[in-house]
Known about the structure:
heterodimer; A: 267 residues; mainly alpha; 10 helices; extended; B: 264 residues; alpha/beta; 6-stranded mixed sheet; 3-stranded antiparallel sheet; 9 strands; globular; disordered C terminus
Amino acid sequence: MSAMRLLLGGAWSAGRILKWVLAGVAAIVVLVWSARGVNLSFAELVRGLPWVADLVSRMVPPNLGFLERLVRPVVETVQIALWGTLLAVLLALPLCFVAARNLSPSLALFHFMRQVLNALRGINEIIFALIFVAAVGLGPFAGVLALSIHGAGMLGKFFAEAIEEIDAGPVEALRATGAGPVLVVVFGVLPQVIPSWIASTLYRFEVNLRAATILGMIGAGGIGFELVSSMKLFQYQDTATCVLVILAMVMTADYLSSRLRARILAS
Amino acid sequence: MIEVTGLTKTYGKIAALRGVDLSVASGEMCVVLGPSGAGKSTLLRCVNRLVEPTSGTIVVGGLPAPRGRAELRELRRHVGMIFQDHNLVPRLSVLKNVLTGRLASMPVLTSVVQLFPRADVEVALHALERVALADRAMDRADRLSGGQQQRVGIARALAQQPQVILADEPVASLDPKTARVVLDDLRRAAHELGIAVLCNLHQVEYAIEFADRIVGIGAGRVVFEGTPAQLDDVALARIYPGLTAARARSGEVAGDQAEAVMQP
């Protein structure tokens, strides 16, 4: 008797073992094929290491004098995230009721709106930003629009899912009093979803702030512009400062938003 | 006040109600008894059209069958409903929950911004006094006990100043002492305010204790109608076929596991 026992669960018939072997072989084939596609090479990495070390050595110490020039871009980044989030909420609010199965006026509209939200969410904010830079010109406003459109898709889905999770009892009770549809939503639905909506919005702000730090790379405002220009000018000590500032911003936002969300969801 | 004639309701091929005649007068507490699946809940929900009847007529307070949304809401305004799980909005205050009973009579725009006419707040507070919970008006509804929440549900129905109250198994989740307080509140609403109360129960002893009149439903039909005194063993056997009268009286009438579990 062995002291160990392998527990695989279920009956392991020959057919089932064959299926797993075939799946394993298929996975290995796909991975090798992809590795060749992306020129995966440890040798290249090792050969490149001295260059990485060289770049890092040029980055230290970070140029703290550059901080002064980063104040305005940092503020702008926060402003982009703020308005990107607010506009996303305003866009998502009317859409989410149609995209919630239990409140949607019709099943066809429900499926249509879910697909619209999927499309908005599926396209990366950078792609939207490229489009809006072309449409409204370089600058932070293009970034705001990109974040609001992509964010509306995300928040619309979160808001709709919160509506689908509510207790239907109070809604039925309010309908039974003869209250009209607007008041049924305001008194029966909103009190049940508001905490979850606020939590989703805070999370979205967090995500938007991260996204806003790179929008500048394509000219849509924020600190990303300083990051890219410093690299183009080979001012790697300035680049290091940018990276540190971005890290500080993102960590602060993460910390504050997760604390706030925990407090709201607990109440 | 409620006149039901030849009411039927079928879900697909299943007949929930097969021709029910029933009338409830103003100020009368009428209790509907019957095993689970007999159609009690469907009967109640047909009265305020949460369930659309298949055929038959229901006249509530002289209002005919509603045509269109406006008439439907006008009908519901006069019909209060009390649910087994009280169906309060958990995060709203007790007072706001009671005020939701007045939503159909209040202006939409001001209500949205939580601004309520003084007269409606008075009606709501008065309804809370009737169930002896005025001192909890500002508490959040989910802070209250199950029995208190159900009484807030009654206050919400009273705030509608209804002609009719429908109560669907209002005490199924409550202990006997609390259940009696809730049923007493309902009976006083009928006797003191002249409201027609139609109440589903599955405990025979409560029906005998609180009803002015008992209607027994079996397999979608009325199989008994009379005063609590007339509810003898023969009648019980008609309402609960397959159960001895003694077992029916002892409360084993739920007939279904899910409801039996909720018995305290």
